[in-house]
Amino acid sequence: MINEFKNSPVIPVLTFNDVNESLKISEILIQEGLTNLEITLRTPNAMSCIEAIVKEFPMANVGAGTIIKKEQLLQVQNIGCTFAVSPGATSSLIQEAKRIDMNYLPGASTPSEIISLIEDGIFFQKFFHAGNSGGYKMLQAYANIFEEVQFCPTGGIGQKDFQDYLNLKNVVCLGGSWMVNTKTMSLNDIQIEAKSITSVI
Ligand SMILES: O=C(O)C(=O)C[C@H](O)[C@H](O)COP(=O)(O)O
């Protein structure tokens, strides 16, 4: 899982409810080189959007976010997700991901949560909510303490600071929703934003 994220280290975190719109936006992002997509399960049609994107763009690495119930892991695997992301973690989520052999990125933000995931053998962790949990300066401090842990910070990251995160030695990739805001951005705006990201990563 880590290698795919290294190849395209900015992961758009997308909240879709309309299948057609989700296909149009995913096409732009993938064409521009943002080939790792995290679709949140926060809308009634999120699963249908994921299913359509997976079918239409087999070259993309499509994962599901907002995994907070263990049964969601099997559901998203069955519709073709290749990874699953949670804002936090519980032992039952971790065990279920292991049982079904799903690439799983659980979340942590405090030292104790990070240690708990280390105890479960998880050395690639989502750092959530990055912006409200000390930002890249906190992750920089964690680099010296948790030398073997690699992070995918997500939450509150934007155009202004994503490169600061990517420059850290303990950051493999990061997630963010700033490049797609369907209320305020046109498809053209999304394309420009995606281009500006891929030109520097
Ligand atoms: O729904 C989930 O499980 C999530 O993972 C939350 C997302 O990571 C954040 O919504 C992304 O944060 P923003 O870039 O600040 O929007």
UniProtKB/TrEMBL annotation:
CDD domains recorded: KDPG_aldolase (cd00452)
Enzyme Commission numbers on file: 4.1.2.14
Source species, domain of life: Bacteria
Ranges in a coiled coil:
none
Catalysed reactions listed for this entry:
2-dehydro-3-deoxy-6-phospho-D-gluconate = D-glyceraldehyde 3-phosphate + pyruvate
Could you list this entry's UniProt keywords, alphabetically sorted.
Carbohydrate metabolism, Lyase
Instruction: Read off the Pfam families from this record.
Output: Aldolase
What InterPro entries does the entry give? Aldlse_KDPG_KHG (IPR000887), Aldolase_TIM (IPR013785), KDPG/KHG_AS_1 (IPR031337)
Gene Ontology MF: a single term: 2-dehydro-3-deoxy-phosphogluconate aldolase activity
TM segment ranges:
none
UniProt pathway: Carbohydrate acid metabolism; 2-dehydro-3-deoxy-D-gluconate degradation; D-glyceraldehyde 3-phosphate and pyruvate from 2-dehydro-3-deoxy-D-gluconate: step 2/2
Family membership noted in the UniProt record:
Belongs to the KHG/KDPG aldolase family.
Which NCBIfam families does the entry link to? Answer: eda
Quaternary structure (record)? Homotrimer.
Query: What is this protein's name?
Result: 2-dehydro-3-deoxy-phosphogluconate aldolase
Q: What gene makes this protein?
A: eda
